[in-house]
Structure formats: C-alpha cells, structure tokens
Design brief:
Blueprint: E1 2-8, E2 14-15, E3 23-28, H1 35-48, E4 52-56, E5 66-68, E6 74-76, H2 79-90, E7 94-99, H3 126-144, H4 146-149, E8 153-156, H5 170-187, E9 192-199, E10 201-203, E11 231-233, H6 236-245, E12 252-256, E13 262-263, E14 270-271, H7 279-292, E15 300-306, H8 320-332, E16 339-342, H9 374-384, E17 388-393, E18 396-400, E19 407-412, H10 430-436, E20 442-449, E21 456-462, H11 470-475, H12 484-495, E22 498-503, E23 510-516, E24 521-525
Parallel strand pairs: 1-20, 3-4, 4-7, 7-8, 8-9, 9-12, 12-15, 15-16
Antiparallel strand pairs: 2-17, 5-6, 10-11, 13-14, 17-18, 18-19, 19-24, 20-23, 21-22, 21-24
Length: about 525
C-alpha cells in the first residue's frame, strides 16, 4: 500500500490555519518562574510557533495572589504573576489564562488534588472572587494595555466535572462562571471569556451531564463497541443553555478531548478505554456541529488540553508513535477548531511530583533535562507547513507559503494494524515497545511540480532511529540523572532528525519515492527565509 500525493505549486489553494500551534499547555504557574521552564518555552515557541500557553495554579498558594487578614481585609499581591507574564510576553507567547484554583483563604476545601495540593473547591465568597478577578484584569490592562489584554483568553477553572478539581456541583460551577464572566466584562467588555473546560468526551451522551448534579450512575450499560456510539462533550450543552438563558457571554467554548479515560460521572469515577485512532477528529466534528447549532455559533472552539492519554506516567509519550498520532490527528482535523492544545510542552511538571528518571513517560515534548522527544518534531514539522492547502489525502498534505511560494508536504505512516489511538504504556515500557514494533514499511510518494528548476528541496525524516533520543539513553544504561556530557549527547540526539537535500529537475518537478518505516513522519519542504530549523 502506497501513500501518494501530488501537487502543483502554481495551482489555486485554500487557506490553512495552523490551529495546532495556537496554544500549548504547561503544568502550573509557579513552574514558569524557573529558568529551565523558560528556556524550553522559548525553544518550542521558536520551533513550533506556539502563540499561547495555558497552565493551572495561577491563583494557587505559591503565587501569593490573595490573602485575607484576620480583620477580613483582602490583600492582593500581583508581583509573581507580573514576573511570569512579563517573561511569557518577552518570549513572544501570550497567556491563555486559566482562572483557578481557589486562593487558600477563599477555598471551601484545600489541598484536594495534585502533589502541589491545588485547592480544587469553589470559593466560599463569590463576591470576593469576582472582586479579585476584576482587580486582576484591571491590573493587567494597566500594565500591558487594553489592546494587548484583549488578545488573551480567560478560561474559567479546569475540568469542574471531576471531583478532585472542583469539589462542587454543576450548578455551583455555572454560578462561578457567571460571576467570573461578569467581573471580566466589568473590567473591559473586550476581554474574551469561555468554558466549561470539562473533561472528557463520553459515549452516547449518557454521562454528558444532562441530569443535574448526578453523583454516580447505579448502572453502566456496556456497549459491544463503544467506538460505534456517539461521543459528546461533558456538560457543554447544559452550559450553553444556562448561559443563553441568563444572557452570559461565551466568547469561546473549551473542553478536553483525550481519546482515553472517560468519566462515568461528575465526581471522578472513570472507565479506561482507548478509543479509535480517528476519535479526536470525530469529537471535533461533533463539537463543531454542536457549537454551530447553539445560541453561540460565533464562539471560538479551543480544546485546551489534549494528548494521547491523560497520564503523566505513560511511557508512550516518549516514543515515536506519540508524534505520529499528533500529526495524524491534527491533519485530519483541519478546519474544525481554533486550537488543539498539546498537554504539555515540558516535563518540568509536577502534578504527580517529579519524575523518577529522565524518560518517565511525562506529558512533555521535552524532558526535564531539555532533551527533545519525537513529539517535539511533530509540532516543529507541522509549523513548517504553509498557509495555503494545495492537496490532501489519507496520510499526507501539500501546502504553500503565500509570501514566498515555497512548498511544504507532510506525510505520516500510522500503521493500519493499530486501529486505536496509541495504547498507554503504564508501569513500564513493554506496551510502548510492542506498539513501536507493530506494522510494516509502506511506500511514500510525494510529487511536486511548479518549482524553480534546480530548486533545493529538503527531506526530513522522524522515526525510531532519527529524532529519538530514548535508545541512546537506554544504551547509556538509562541513568536517572544523566551527567552533563550525557545530557549534551542526548540533546543532540533528540534534535537530530534525518536531513537530505535534493534538487528539482529542469522542468521544476520533484519526486520523493521511498519506503518508510511504521510510525515515520516525513517533511518535504523548500527553505523559508528567516525560519529557524
């Protein structure tokens, strides 16, 4: 079976929005004050073009944003937030502001989730909460200017349908959203607010939140084929109805379409299920239709967390199949949403505490030591695509850069033997190694016309041997904390995909026709002036 695509550089194209690079995730706000985190953010911003970064914990204890004195006086301290946001903007990245969790003196319960003990409970005083949000927004406007802050996004909370993250009911979340949206709009009508930031999509709409504050379903009807059912986003329909009935603004809709681990109820009861390889695209189509037919058809759609699994100890994240899944899901979802934010860019990430070893299955596209994983190259290669789509087929696209006329094609070999999203590899690397070895080579044929005669064309290949530092680390004896020399070698190995430079023929045609391994990603492109590698 051959993956084949042909395009003419002089043919008409259609606009292509790089929704995959709109936003990327990070762990928590305080981690962003570290030098390693900031260096890695600059690296992914330059290579992958990310425009926004979203993280938890902006109002957590370690950011010192709010405290209440014994006499009831509220004290606000924005110095740590200022330092973080200044550094983001200096790196060319804007904040996608997640407003949560509760500051300690407002939280109804404290330390409910994560190693860093986030206060996953609604604030006891909605008026005090609204005053804090208004003051923050006005502070940002004074510091950065209204025009700048109007380009940001303000998302209310994180996954309020899951108990550890929100020790309250659906009704309480809706009330919190209303208070937060009102506070932001009082500060400036141009600020963009949205939600409900729920996790996850669930089958057949049965657990999507149609019933008010249901704590647990007594019976879960098993389907013979869960993937044959329609999956729908949790709480979203009720959320949009609530906001419309009360005249609340919804500038964007957000939720988290992980293709695994769906919640049976609103309080943390789960069933683990790895869905079909095209589950993300199917979910985004459902979401697009739902929003288009809602009272808010002009609302943007931002999927503010997404990955092959929602575990920071899934070894699959360190392997090439994670990268191939990223490319496949994004290319199949062109035109459906405004962002699909990879969770997260760095293994400087402590929801479950520190990883015990350099490659521990963390979410990040870069290890704690700064070693790029294959998924880093997936986003770097996606960012190399142009802003006009010329051709598209199963497994490949060809694009054009409107400013230069240069062409860029991206292709991937997701072996048909793997019908699911990459299965998680928990507790060890055995499943990840088995999946990496699944499948057979395929022929890849990319034919381009309309190039300048003799023009240079670069072919970059990402696979198990190229752009993958994990085998090098294993050959070193898998050191938990690599030496400085080992770290330098791993960083170089992680950055080094296979590069080959060829030329178009005298008629301005170019043909790439080779056999590629399973889980390969291949980028065929002409150099773009001013773009880093």
């Amino acid at each position: 079976m051959t993956i084949s695509i042909t395009a003419d550089g002089g043919a008409p194209g259609e606009p292509l929005v790089h929704f995959w690079s709109t936003c990327v995730g990070a762990g928590r706000a305080a981690e962003g004050l570290r030098a390693g985190w900031q260096e890695q953010l600059q690296l992914v911003a330059d290579a992958a073009g990310f425009g926004y970064v979203r993280f938890h914990g902006l109002l957590h204890d370690d950011m010192f944003v709010h405290r209440r004195e014994p006499d009831g006086t509220d004290v606000h301290n924005f110095q740590y937030v200022d330092d973080l946001f200044d550094r983001l903007l200096d790196a060319g990245v804007r904040p996608f502001v997640e407003l949560g969790f509760s500051p300690p003196d407002m939280a109804r319960e404290q330390g409910t989730t994560f190693w860093w003990k986030a206060n996953g409970a609604p604030p006891t005083d909605l008026d005090g909460w609204a005053e804090l949000i208004r003051r923050l927004a006005e502070h940002w406007i004074a510091r950065y200017g209204a025009d700048e802050v109007r380009t940001w996004y303000f998302e209310v909370w994180n996954e309020p349908n899951l108990g550890p993250f929100f020790r309250g009911s659906k009704s309480e979340y809706f009330a919190l959203y209303g208070a937060t949206a009102g506070a932001l709009k009082r500060a400036d009508q141009g600020l963009r607010v949205g939600g409900p930031a729920t996790s996850n999509f669930v089958p057949d709409g049965r657990f999507a939140g149609e019933h008010e504050d249901v704590s647990q379903h007594a019976i879960v009807r098993e389907a013979e084929d869960l993937d044959a059912l329609e999956w729908r986003p949790v709480w979203l329909q009720d959320f949009l109805t609530y906001c419309h009935q009360r005249g609340l603004p919804v500038d964007f809709v957000s939720c988290h379409p992980y293709p695994t681990d769906w919640a049976l109820d609103g309080h943390g009861v789960h069933q683990q299920h790895t869905r079909a390889a095209d589950a993300t695209t199917r979910d985004l189509r459902t979401l697009r239709e739902l929003v288009d037919n809602s009272p808010y058809p002009d609302a943007e759609i931002h999927l503010t967390e997404w990955n092959s699994s929602p575990s920071s100890r899934d070894h699959t994240h360190d392997y090439p199949q994670a990268a191939t899944f990223v490319v496949k899901a994004n290319l199949e979802s062109i035109g459906l949403v405004d962002s699909l934010a990879y969770w997260v860019f760095t293994d400087v990430f402590e929801e479950a505490g520190a990883g015990d070893t350099a490659f521990h299955g963390g979410f990040g596209m870069i290890t704690f030591q700064g070693v790029p994983k294959p998924v880093f190259h997936a986003y770097r290669m996606l960012n190399r695509l142009g802003d006009e789509l010329l051709a598209r087929t199963d497994g490949a696209v060809v694009t054009r850069h409107s400013a230069t006329g240069g062409l860029a094609a991206l292709a991937y070999h997701y072996p048909p033997e793997v019908t699911q999203a990459p299965p998680g590899s928990f507790g060890g690397r055995e499943t990840a190694e088995r999946i990496l070895a699944t499948g057979s080579p395929r022929r890849l044929r990319v034919e381009l016309a309309g190039l300048r005669p003799g023009a240079s064309v670069t072919i970059e290949t990402l696979d198990a041997r190229n752009g993958n530092a994990l085998p090098i680390w294993q050959a070193m004896g898998a050191p938990d904390s690599p030496s400085r020399q080992q770290t330098a070698l791993l960083r170089e190995a992680g950055r080094s995909v296979r590069h080959v430079v060829q030329q178009a023929d005298e008629q301005g045609r170019f043909l790439f026709d080779e056999e590629v391994r399973p889980w390969s990603v291949v980028l065929v492109h002409q150099p773009v002036p001013g773009r880093s590698r």
